[in-house]
Amino acid sequence: MRAIKSVLVVAGSLKRGDPERPEEQVLMRSLRDFNIPKIVTDDVPVFMGLIGDLFPALDVPRKPRLSKPGGVLLQVVQLEELLTVRHSVFVVGNAGTGKSQVMKSLYKTYQLMKRRPVWADLNPKAVTNDELFGIINPATREWKDGLFSSIMRELANITHDGPKWMVLDGDIDPMWIESLNTVMDDNKVLTLASNERIPLNPTMRLVFEISHLRTATPATVSRAGESSRIQCH
What we know:
Pfam families: AAA_5, AAA_6. One of its GO terms (molecular function) is dynein intermediate chain binding. This is Dynein heavy chain hydrolytic ATP-binding dynein motor region domain-containing protein. The structure is a single chain. By secondary structure, the chain is α/β, with parallel strands linked by helices. The protein has helices spanning about 1-15, 25-35, 45-55, 70-85, 100-110, 130-135, 145-155, 175, 180-185, 220-225; strands spanning about 90, 120, 135, 145, 165-170, 190, 195-200, 205-210, 230.
């Protein structure tokens, strides 16, 4: 249901941007453009064959760009399309496959467009869970802020409408990612042990730069993994 809802969101966005386009073309393009970024190269022909069976003789061009997208450029386009409709995105690929280059290229594009992008990154496995999200001192009851909670609060307090990314660079560990479930789902709120609630506002995105999803729990996958993944290879 979550995937269907996401495709409908994409379709609605496309229809609003091009209201004269026939509905079957809007649906075909939303199914294609939403799912292609998540599929490994070997499976693309199979997927496109299924699309061809559903929409015979229908070929809708991608959103016009300065040049024909391919390679890194295609992945930049795919990342931008996913970030438009999803607030949590996994950029997946082994070391050396261009994950960082794809993200930096899109970020630089935003800068050239004068959109004032903000990028804050951290390795969640470089610190403890308490250092990441904060902790209440059991003796004094004083609250000590965490690295992630501090970054999220700072980005939430930026008033301009440019894109704001929190990039978590490091493979998923259930020990820390479970604390982000309410941020990644439709609540879009980080709830701290201090009872503070920090909202993920409409300009903010969680971007996970990872090599695989093998250690992701079903809860994590259902919230973001299967509906917002771009595969670098």
